[in-house]
Amino acid sequence: MDKTLTAALQREARPLETAEDFDFLLNCIGDASLVLLGEATHGSREFYRLRADISKRLIVDKGFDAIAVEADWPDALRVSRYVQHSGDDMTAEQALTGFKRFPQWMWRNHEIVDLVNWLRVHNHRVASPARRCGFYGLDLYSLQQSMHAVIAYLDRADPEAAARARERYACIDHFAEDPQRYGYATRFGMKPDCEVEVLRQLVDMSRLANEHLRTGMVPDEFFYAQQNARVTRNAEVYYRAMFQGRDESWNVRDSHMAETLQSLREHLGQSIGRPARIVVWAHNSHLGDARATEMAALGQLNLGQLVRERYRPHDSFLLGFTTHTGTVTAASAWDGPAELKHIVPSRTDSVEHLLHGVGMPSFLLRLRGQDTALARADGRLLERAIGVIYRPDSERMSHYFYADAERQFDALVHVDRTTALAPLERSALWHLNEPAETYPSGL
Question: What's the pTM?
């Protein structure tokens, strides 16, 4: 490793240990109203805790209005009702029971319970319901739930419209429990697709939303139903795209997340009189600008790229997270049980290994507007991405890609050794046998 480069990174790195260190991070974020917080894995405790601490500071110190996460809209909305004191659930654990789909541990874990409890207490001190911080989902996997939520809303608001929605959604409803079967059947000509029907339903909801806007504001409950119609339409496209190739389905999903974020920002802004300030939680692969990675060569885009393209430069702030080694909660295959796995130490040709050489347990590296040592690293570096599945035996092929982290993010947080996220429900393959905690204790 280049000792000169390591020494330069050591000078630029700022420990994350005290409240003052987090003050520095907030100064770096500045006036950005969209703060995107990544993660290098979907199962590391430190990433969840750091994102929670940063989110709390943004809510309290900078007046942020919502947390939007890489989760399904109906499940997250149930949590939002709870934290905003408008739902029927009595505890955070009960509010999180909507998260039944794999991977449950991403949201049914002890760190999220703590955050949900904090949000509820914080909102209790906010007099106006419109100013209470919400918790929303950006993802599109909830095809069946979202269809049924649209119909349930219309049953109450407009029974005739509900009958039309039932007729349109009947095209796809019997596939909804296993939407991949729908995608397979339509891709290979075993049944006609339902694109026109689900699009008509979304168009109807959007037309009604415009009528509401002409006379005032779109009511929350209508907006939630409209968003479920949007999920249904985009999920239908996504599951058909799955059998055309990974790049097509990836782009549908991240475009949906960007569209949802924009719609949520505009809707929340109606009642507060300004564009809403939102903190976003998702994996680095969604939040780091895809144009700075080999994803772009494959024709893939992502949420971070779309945010940078749609908003002014200082309206957004992209914060990535990396780790060198430790343990992680992940599965060995899709729909598999949560396992506690050991993370292989990072490759010597990776950005993680370069940051490991700094020799600090955790630190912040500011990138935006800086002539950083990271930008002077020779050649492209690999970057690791561990999602809900971790395959250490094929790690180079399964989890590494080339990236220019200096262009990909506005800042990086490196936690050298991370520990596995503790699920609320632990499988027989999840055994608590981990090293002493090294998470910064300043907050």
Answer: 0.94
